[in-house]
Each structure stands twice: as C-alpha cells, then as structure tokens.
Amino acid sequence: MEYVFELTMKVRDYECDLQGIVNNANYQHYIEHTRHEFLLTRGVSFADLHARGIDAVVARLQMAFKTPLRSGDSFVSRLAVRKEGLRIVFVQDIYRFPDNKPVIRSTVDTVCVVDGRLSACAELEKLLGL
C-alpha cells in the first residue's frame, strides 16, 4: 500500500479526556479532516458535489488503536485510496512525531449516492485517480 497524501496536525487540549489522552471520537475527526483536505487537493469539494446531486458517504469505519496521543503531541495522518466494487476505500493511518510510532490504523469504506440512488461515480473516481 502506498500513501498518496499526508497531513500534519497537533493535539489540542480540549481533545483529551480525563486520562489525559485523546478521546477516541477525535480520531474520527482527524481522519475525516484528512480525507477532506486530500479531496480539496484533487479539486473535489463536498459542497460542489452535493449541489450536483452527488453525495459520498461513509458506509463503514474500522479503527484499531495502537498508541494514545496526548495534549501537544504532533502527528501525521496518512491516506491511501483504492476502489472495491462500488466502494471507495480509504486506508488511513496516524503516526506520532517524532518517533513515527503507529497511533491508529483505520479503513473507511465510502459509497456514492447519486441523485438519491446508490451508484458508481465516474467523476469522483477519475478525480481520485481510481
């Protein structure tokens, strides 16, 4: 698997729970933000797609937690993408800086709903290089 995009971020205090580690729900925000930024680099805007009747939605999300992040930690969110049938699958992994230790491993299956119907989306697939 080859990553095609990465985004560096930093943990903010309010993202941590009482144990002083990033709350599990925030990892989903990190990987979603990474997908959105990746799509923008490919000229894809969710708002523009939606206005044209194309909605890319998450169908399934799997996350494996490896090492917790703490307030102030810097990390990189890396992304790879592939097509499997109607699904566009994003493999997204987060690594802590500076030791590059794995934080989470995740897979996000997305599908396209075009004009209200589950469908392949050749336009989006082309923009993603699939």
Could you tell me how far the N terminus lies from the C terminus, measured between alpha carbons in angstroms? Answer: 14 Å
Rounded to an integer in angstroms, the radius of gyration calculated over CA atoms is 16 Å
Report the portion of residues in β strands. 35-45%
Order of helices and strands: EHHEEEEEH
Largest beta sheet, briefly? 6 strands, antiparallel
Number of strands: 6
Shape, per Cα inertia axes: elongated
Average pLDDT confidence is 93
The number of distinct helices, counting runs of at least 4 residues, comes to 3
Protein structure class: alpha+beta
- As residue ranges, the low-confidence spans are none
Helix content: 10-25%
How are the SSEs ordered, and which strands pair?
Blueprint: E1 5-10, H1 24-41, H2 46-51, E2 54-65, E3 74-84, E4 87-96, E5 101-114, E6 117-119, H3 122-127
Antiparallel strand pairs: 1-3, 2-5, 3-4, 4-5, 5-6
Q: How does this model look, in words?
A:
The protein contains three helices and six strands, in the order βααβββββα. The chain is an alpha+beta fold and 130 residues long. Strands 1, 2, 3, 4, 5 and 6 form a six-stranded antiparallel sheet that branches. A hairpin with a 2-residue loop joins β5 (101-114) and β6. The longest helix has 18 residues, at 24-41. The chain is elongated, with a radius of gyration of 16 Å. The mean pLDDT is 93.
